[in-house]
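Reviewers of the previous submission asked for a worked example of the structure-prediction workflow described in the proposal, so we include one complete record here. The input consisted solely of the amino acid sequence. No template or homolog information was supplied to the procedure at any stage.
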Amino acid sequence: MPEARSVVIEKAVCYVIADQHLLVFTHDDVPLDITGVQVPAGSIRPGEAAADAAVRELQEETGLHGRVLREVGIVDYDLAPMRDEIARRHFFVLAVDHVDIESVWSSGESDPSTGGAAQAWTCRWIPLTQAHVLAGGLGAKLGEAARSV
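From that input alone, the workflow returned the following C-alpha cells.
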C-alpha cells in the first residue's frame, strides 16, 4: 500500500509482441545505465481509458498504430528515491500490422509531457527470451503476457 505522501500516477504500459519478439526502445542521448531498455508507456490523461492511453502512447513513442488485445494486470511501482511517486501501471498486450522484427528505427518525443528537452530513441524488436533486460519494473507482467500470445 502506498504511503499517504506518495502521489499515485496512472500509467499505461504496452507489450507489443510479434513472432516471439517484444518491441523495445533505448534512449539515444541518455546513458543506458540511467534509462535502461524500455517499452512504450506513459501517463493516462484525465478521463482517458487506460486501453486508449496504451494505443496513444504506442503511436506517440514509436509511430506504430496498434490495437489492444488484452489487459494483463495492474501493478504499483514505487519510484522512490528518484521521485516520491507511485506509478500505477496498467499492462496491455497490443498488436500491430506489418511487423518486420529485423527493423530498427528512430523515434522520440519533441515535447515530453514532463517538460524538458526533446528526447530521441531507437526502437527495435528483441527476442522475448531476452526481455529480462527491461528497466524499472516494466517487465512485471511480461511472463503472463508472453503466455497469452
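The chain is about 15% helix and 40% strand. We consider this example representative of the routine output the project will generate in years two and three.
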